[in-house]
Specification:
Layout (H helix, E strand, L loop, with lengths): L8 E2 L7 E4 L8 E2 L4 E2 L9 E3 L8 E4 L2 E6 L8 E2 L4 E2 L26 E6 L5 E2 L3 E6 L5 H10 L13 E5 L12 H14 L4 E8 L7 H7 L8 E5 H4 L2 H20 L4 E4 L4 E6 L10 H14 L3 E4 L10 H4 L5 H17 L13 H5 L5 H8 L8 E5 L9 E5 L5 H10 L4 E6 L12 E5 L2 H6 L6 E2 L1 H4 L5 H16 L5 H4 L17
Parallel strand pairs: 12-13, 12-14, 14-15, 17-18, 17-21, 18-20, 19-20, 21-22, 22-23
Antiparallel strand pairs: 1-2, 2-5, 3-4, 5-8, 6-7, 7-9, 10-11, 10-16
Helix pairs in contact: 1-5, 2-11, 6-14
InterPro entries: GD_AH_C, GD_AH_second, SAF, SAF_UxaA/GarD, UxaA_altronate/galactarate_dh
Keywords: Lyase
Organism: Pseudomonas eucalypticola
């Protein structure tokens, strides 16, 4: 692998009419592997016309249409949003026609990790106590209670990872029934009931529209020694609520600490997948490498949750074709149709516009971003589709309908049961999550080097030619097991996650 000459461009498919710049390329550079000369400066991660593309012709990347030429584009032209037009493409959904069942490994051959087995058989990767608010009015009280339990006060309880405030900005000023309230309740409830939550304290001001008693009843929660409720107006105000809340959490510490890790099958891993701050390399390295790890995980009986519905738009047919049943495939298209109606006439990603950071990183439009984003799902069959924050009970690759906004999307995945979040990034997203930790996969070596304190794995080794996607996938799978066993991620070491609990605010304000 050493002393080799590497082409400055990457060809993804023999049918493609563009190639991707592996490094920054100056105008006038001869690219021998493609027999072309660049006509403009090309930033790394951006595309170059590999042959003449006439106006109106489709632009092909991974032999998939990502747009249409807005003018005649000679070979060597820098290709980006200034000369690639966004447009509808014909898609054959082939509902379930390409389904191939996963060949699961025998139980005695499956990988293991050191997990925490709860009384009901669920497996945790972390061990937290949570302080949850039903509405924003309880946020300060929740923070004061949780912040009391600093490192010094928890020193006697080494098996507890922390006491975390789960606060948000809604819960009042919204309709008291309907999907917005149901969504909020099941999101909070999913975190309360999460395997990584050893116990919790529910905080309410007392007059929220998200009434604490209605919330407890609707979510089927049972108050006991490890789940308590506190209403600020009933106990005499903020100071009294903080004092009483601290005592309630203190009483939970001994039982929460009484756990130990033990070997468990990788089938108990539920991975939520995210991509944020994407660039032109994300779909070439980090995303397909994570997809390769997902294929391994699924063979070991585990579960992976693909999400960010607006960021698979344009390539959803690659998932519906391998759905376990036509009904599962149609559930996905129903969610796509909901988003198209929801975003009709708005300047949003599903209508073509990606964020400025994504655009600067080499992504021309949502079709190109979706093409790379969907690769996180590997080649496993699609086993089910869930609406936001619903409990994930089907094993294998599943899809959860969420926005593309990472904190909101990951919050829904964790509410659904994800016990790890795998986050790919090309620009360098700084994200963390609780009670399930996030580990981050960098798409390129320069960013990994620049932000090594935030990145866990360098998938840029694929771009550099030092590792294959398959090798990188195995490395990611091994790291999944290590982090599930308690090895801290970079986001945990940086103290991230407390402020990233973001329930989806879907038409809530009144």
């Amino acid at each position: 692998m050493q002393n080799r000459e590497i082409s400055p461009v990457i060809r993804l498919d023999s049918a493609d009419n563009v190639v991707v710049a592996r490094v920054e390329i100056s105008a006038g550079t001869q690219v021998a592997s493609e027999q072309l000369t660049t006509l403009q400066n090309v930033p790394l991660g951006h595309k170059i016309a590999a042959r003449m593309i006439e106006k109106g012709q489709p632009v092909l990347k991974y032999n998939t249409v990502i747009g249409y030429a807005s003018e005649d584009l000679p070979a060597g032209t820098w290709m980006h949003s200034h000369n690639i037009e966004f447009g509808d493409t014909a898609r054959d959904y082939r509902y379930g026609l390409d389904y191939v069942p996963t060949q699961l490994l025998p139980a005695n051959e499956r990988a293991t990790f050191q997990g925490i087995v709860r009384a009901d058989g669920r497996v945790a990767t972390r061990n937290y106590l949570g302080v949850f608010v039903v509405g924003n009015c309880g946020a300060t009280v929740a923070r004061k209670i949780a912040n009391h339990f600093d490192e010094e006060r928890l020193a006697a309880y080494p098996n507890i990872d922390g006491v975390v405030p789960f606060v948000h900005e809604i819960g009042c000023g919204m309709e008291m029934t309907g999907e917005p309230m149901n969504l909020l309740r099941r999101t909070i409830g999913g975190h309360v009931k999460h395997a990584n939550t050893a116990g919790g304290l529910l905080i309410a001001l007392g007059c929220e529209r998200n009434n604490i008693h209605g919330f407890i009843e609707q979510e089927g929660l049972l108050l006991n020694d490890m789940l308590k409720a506190l209403v600020i107006q009933d106990v005499g105000g903020v100071k009294s609520a903080v004092d009483q809340g601290i005592k309630l959490i203190e009483a939970m510490l001994p039982q929460a600490n009484a756990v130990q890790r033990q070997p468990v099958s990788a089938e108990h891993l539920i991975i939520g997948m995210q991509c944020g701050g994407s660039d032109g390399f994300s779909g070439l390295s980090a995303n397909p490498a994570l997809g390769a790890a997902v294929d391994i995980l699924v063979r070991h009986g585990g579960t992976a949750i693909l999400s960010e519905t607006s960021e698979i738009f344009g390539v959803e047919h690659t998932l519906t074709a391998r759905a376990v049943t036509p009904q599962v495939g149609r559930k996905l298209i129903e969610r796509i149709d909901w988003w198209l109606e929801y975003n009709k006439g708005r300047d949003t990603q599903i209508n073509g516009r990606v964020s400025p950071g994504n655009n600067a990183g080499g992504l021309a439009n949502v079709l190109e971003k979706s093409l790379g984003g969907a690769k996180k799902g590997g080649n496993a069959p699609l086993m089910d589709v869930y609406e936001y924050a619903y409990p994930v009970t089907t094993r294998g690759l599943v899809f959860m309908d969420t926005p593309g906004y990472d904190p909101v999307s990951a919050t829904g995945q964790i509410a659904g049961g994800a016990n790890l979040i795998a986050f790919t990034t090309g620009r360098g997203s700084c994200f963390g999550s609780l009670p399930a930790p996030t580990f981050k996969l960098a798409s390129n070596t320069p960013m990994f080097t620049r932000m090594s304190d935030d990145m866990d794995i360098n998938c840029g080794q694929i771009i550099d030619g030092d590792k294959t996607i398959r090798q990188m996938g195995q490395e990611i799978f091994d790291r999944l097991l290590a982090h599930a066993s308690g090895e801290p991620t970079k986001s945990e070491l940086n103290g991230l996650g407390e402020d990233e609990f973001c329930p989806w605010q879907i038409g809530v304000l009144a």
